[in-house]
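Case 581 in the screening queue. Each case pairs one protein sequence with one candidate compound; here the compound is calcium ion. For every case the pipeline is the same: read the inputs, emit a complex structure as tokens, and attach any notable structural observations.

Predict complex for case 581.
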Amino acid sequence: MTKDEIAAALEEIGTLLELKGESSFRTLAYHNGARALSQYEGDFQELVSTGKIGEIRGVGASLAEKIQQLAETGELPQLTELRAAIPPGVIAMLKIPGVGPKKVKALSEDLKLTTIDELKAACEAGTVAKLKGFGAKTQAKILEGIQFLGTVGQRVRLDLALPLGEALLEQLKKLPGVIRAELCGSLRRRRETTKDIDILLSSDNPKPIMDAFVTLPEVMQVVANGETKSSIVAAMVVDREKIVLNADLRVVGDEHFPFALHYFTGSKDHNVRLRQRAIDQGLSLNEYGLKGEGRDVKCKTEADIFAALGLDYIPPELREDTGEIEAAEKKKLPKLITVKNLRGVFHNHSTYSDGNASLEEMALAAKKLGFEYFGIGDHSQSLKIAGGLSPADVKKQHREIDELNARLDGIQILKGIESDILDDGSLDYDDDILRSFDYVVASVHTGFNMSSEEMTARICKALAHQATTMLGHATGRLLLRREGYKVDLDQVLKAAAKHGKMIEINAHPIRLDLDWIHVKRAKAMGIPIVINPDAHSPGELALVEFGIDVARRGWLEADNVFNTKSLAEVLKELNRRKAAW
Ligand code: DGT
Ligand code: CA
Ligand code: ZN
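Case 581 output:
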């Protein structure tokens, strides 16, 4: 076991003893020992091999023995027994804010509760309030705490985590003595969800920066406040949702910054690969530097590190160990698409179906973002709960579009529809009406409970329809809320390639399907991708930025994406498809 793992084990023993009702004198010895150990800055392995752990300040003889045993074997009978005696669900209750070992002991012994779920039910039934020393107020607090745990314990969507991460970063950047500062980890790689916020900063004087960090207004709780690393629980309201996330700040000297930036950006798999490449070249790479025999390879930026290892610069979104190092070596990395490449969008809603703004408002908002074309893709007639358009509505909408296009400058509205893919795989209008659209986005909105075989056949049939231009949200997932329907996406990609259809990256950050792995596969198969915000309000048009993140993670260049084409090119292609029908 490493020093940190042992410290954690000691903390655990202290806590488990508290749950058993041990005297605080005994339990404190473990907690203090754990802190002493984790703060020890010398060579811990040396102390282990020479049997001198007792020299660590704050570690007594009996604790030193246990540490020695943990270091050598990774086990301690005392810990094993304690773990077996107390259910993990009871230990988990300790994470609820305001619930300490004494309360947990009472809840588990007097009410025989063994999990947080059972505790929640007992609170809701009012049983907890009746327990001696608890009361209605405490019961309400526990319930609130359980809810809070639900938010912290989970991953958080990128669109919600990013504003919090950026708020922290911006405040840190303003502090005196900060040389460079960046977000790292999954946020920098733009993963769809994130576990925590990783921030790296360089400075010659970390102490005041750390002190400022742990007192930022977003701080709910200080988990650790150290010389080079501090951890907080931070909270912020984003889009009316209270976002709670752990945030780690690491401070390094500026000469180490590029190495630490690369290391803490990850991914772990990418790091492992790059480190191996360094070894193969007789070098050693870690978060502090790049070393050869008896010399440091000086690097001012991440690009310098890659260059020193014979590689082109690898953008963070590509650092997932899916061939980026090989491509960087051969100078074959893609020239990744950026949001500026987008010239329009195809899948959006208006008040004709379930959007909250008029066609004109939506089109003007698109123009403001610099788009040349705004494609409407309201819902089709079967989707009654979302105000799907009847054939008469379609005619009315098309007349309004003609009128708007005659009147508005600098933006062209395209006549699209988001046609439901019906259970049998057919589209939601007859051919005459389908022919009246410039394009058709085909999407599944109902009948999610089919088998994968049925769903795959259903979608592939819709892709074979001559009217279909592109497949909308390919899996129907809602991130962290709902799994997608069961479908064989690789078969769907094959069908799209066979019939020459496009596939959408649904840029809405709640959805983000197609996922980046399938985006990369689609690219390899030559399937054109479309990045659509699925906007239901003018503000949501800007969500394309999250689709760009997925596209970049999927190695896409501007050329792979249909809505990077000019209006003239788009019209030409859509007309070509219609003429071929
Ligand atoms: P997350 O937090 O689950 O959304 O994803 P990440 O990638 O931010 O992961 P995190 O926060 O655990 O660690 C941040 C970065 O630190 C990670 O991307 C790579 C680096 N890292 C962490 N643990 C290790 C490790 O054991 N080995 C290596 N090579 N790198 C690591
Ligand atoms: Ca992270
Ligand atoms: Zn839809």
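Case 581 observations:
- The longest strand covers residues 241-252.
- Residues 418, 443, 445, 472-473 surround zinc ion (ligand 3) (CB under 6 Å).
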